[in-house]
């Protein structure tokens, strides 16, 4: 039995609430169980300098965890002088995941920054952030089209992410902290609405995992992200 009493293929309760920020061009409050992430998308009329003259736009992301998102207060990274390696890894992952489903030339030479701030962490913050960031970005594109800033929707597909793992010998979907901290294998999958793989991260915490176990995690992830894409569609309807 999982600590949360869920079935092996059962997601935590997931909600996607868009339009939660008054000032951002796009926003979404995403919850995966007790994990809560605020995603805001901000339009900048100028793209990165290294893209100047290319006719292409850019989508990037920043990620942070509030000091009391966890049991103990974490020091703000701004006071440390630079983001941690983990933070840099996650925000690059979010940016790559979003760009995989965006037609960058359709944006013009503009940049959208998606900020993902973890309000409360109970495992799966990066996967929740990617799933909610897509909704915030979609809302930003809708805002832009409504003001004739762009003429077509740059969004080519949905993208969502989910964690999977092997906990006490059983492949399970959507790990919370209790499972993640004791899992024999931990993996994150980023998958498009069309079923394409954007990124797969898998780590054996104890003994190596087999190809058969990996494929079982992949099947769980595909079903899980399909359910998340269905929730995204409901959120933007």
TrEMBL record:
BP GO terms, sorted: rRNA 3'-end processing; rRNA catabolic process; tRNA processing
Domain of life the protein comes from: Bacteria
Domain Exoribonuclease phosphorolytic: 10-138, 159-223
Enzyme Commission identifier(s): 2.7.7.56
HAMAP family: RNase_PH (MF_00564)
Binding site for phosphate: 86, 124-126
Gene3D superfamilies registered for this protein in UniProt: GHMP Kinase, N-terminal domain
Keyword field: Nucleotidyltransferase, RNA-binding, rRNA processing, Transferase, tRNA processing, tRNA-binding
Catalyzed reactions: tRNA(n+1) + phosphate = tRNA(n) + a ribonucleoside 5'-diphosphate
UniProt protein name: Ribonuclease PH
InterPro entries: ExoRNase_PH_dom1, ExoRNase_PH_dom2, ExoRNase_PH_dom2_sf, PNPase/RNase_PH_dom_sf, Ribosomal_Su5_D2-typ_SF, RNase_PH, RNase_PH_bac-type, RNase_PH_CS
Biological role stated in the UniProt entry: Phosphorolytic 3'-5' exoribonuclease that plays an important role in tRNA 3'-end maturation. Removes nucleotide residues following the 3'-CCA terminus of tRNAs; can also add nucleotides to the ends of RNA molecules by using nucleoside diphosphates as substrates, but this may not be physiologically important. Probably plays a role in initiation of 16S rRNA degradation (leading to ribosome degradation) during starvation.
Description of how the protein assembles with itself and partners: Homohexameric ring arranged as a trimer of dimers.
Pfam families: RNase_PH, RNase_PH_C
GO molecular function: 3'-5'-RNA exonuclease activity; tRNA binding; tRNA nucleotidyltransferase activity
PROSITE patterns documented for this protein: RIBONUCLEASE_PH (PS01277)
Gene name, Swiss-Prot/TrEMBL: rph
